[in-house]
Amino acid sequence: MSAKVWLVGAGPGDPELLTLKAVRAMREADVVLIDDLVNVAVLEHCVGARVIAVGKRGGCRSTPQAFIHRLMLRYARQGKCVVRLKGGDPCIFGRGGEEADWLRAQGIEVELVNGITAGLAGATQCGISLTLRGVSRGVTLVTAHTQDDSSLNWQALAQSGTTLVVYMGVAKLSEIRDNLLTGGLLATTPVAMIENASLPHQRECRSTLAQMQTDALAFELKSPAILVIGEVAASQAGLIEQARSA
Ligand code: SAH
Asked: Fewer CB in 10 Å around end: N or C, the chain?
């Protein structure tokens, strides 16, 4: 591989959910910069690469984005093969787009490699089909977390008729509930809250829109977790398991 930066999705956690391309990039990397949510088990594919944790929980308290940019640039200019490994998919709430644009503007070649995003993985692992004939004709991925003052059009989301998958929502459950109720979504709308999707310690809490904050408190729901809001969230993974073992 020639010197360039690979922005690679490490998937939601389960190392078997990595793509073959991600594995190839890691094998050939000289330097790997990893984010918090990357399961370190995937690093077994980084043979001989220098691994640098650049996430909040990874050693540096909070690595400023500008520093990460400069680090990628410095190693790429040294002719090193740089892999920037991100949880899930690099372009779903992962700043992959920003980093790719910035690097290209510096004249660095960039390749983006998909990963399975947490929202899709979490739902599937719990037996939830995000689209379902006759029930849900689409999926909307949203985050309740913003760094600017921009706000979501909650009314449009509530009335979209699509399954909503919310990232970074654990600390904002009451706000999400209130906004969607005001927007016209029924209080009885099923909700699934999935913590540590695809990892051995995955947990799921089933609830409704009206109850989700109370139930999440009792369940001690922690980040990282995704919320699946919509009729499809009523599908029972437990029943699917029972049917399999029958
Ligand atoms: N690029 C990532 C998302 C990063 S934003 C992706 O595509 O998955 C961080 C948020 O992703 C977390 O707050 C949480 O909402 C979600 N998330 C990431 N990994 C998760 C996991 N294993 N289980 C549940 N949610 C997860």
From this structure: C
pLDDT, one tens digit per residue, over 163-184 is 999 999 999 999 999 999 999 9
Q: Which atom of ligand 1 is nearest to the CA of 167?
A: 15
Q: Is the CB of 226 under 6 A from ligand 1?
A: yes
Cα(46)–Cα(30) distance, integer angstroms: 8
Kindly report the CATH number assigned to the domain that includes residue 39.
3.40.1010.10
**Ligand 1 atom at shortest distance from the alpha carbon of 37:** 19
Has 193 been annotated as catalytic? no
Same-domain status, 236 and 175: yes
CA of 224 to the centre of ligand 1 (A): 6
- pLDDT score of 240 more than 50: no
Beta strand segments in the chain, E: 5-9, 31-34, 50-53, 82-86, 110-113, 139-143, 163-167, 190-195, 203-208, 225-229
* Ligand 1 contacts CB of residue 55 (under 6 A): no
- Residue type for position 83: V
pTM: 0.92
Structural domain ending residue among the three candidates 71, 88, 113: 113
Name the catalytic one among 35, 80, 86, 212. Answer: 35
Same domain for 144 and 46: no
pLDDT tens digit sequence for 218-236: 999 999 999 999 999 998 6
Residue with tokens 């977790």: 225
User: pLDDT tens digits, residue range 52-77?
Assistant: 999 865 445 556 888 999 999 999 99
Q: Is 194 in the pocket of ligand 1 (CB under 6 A)?
A: yes
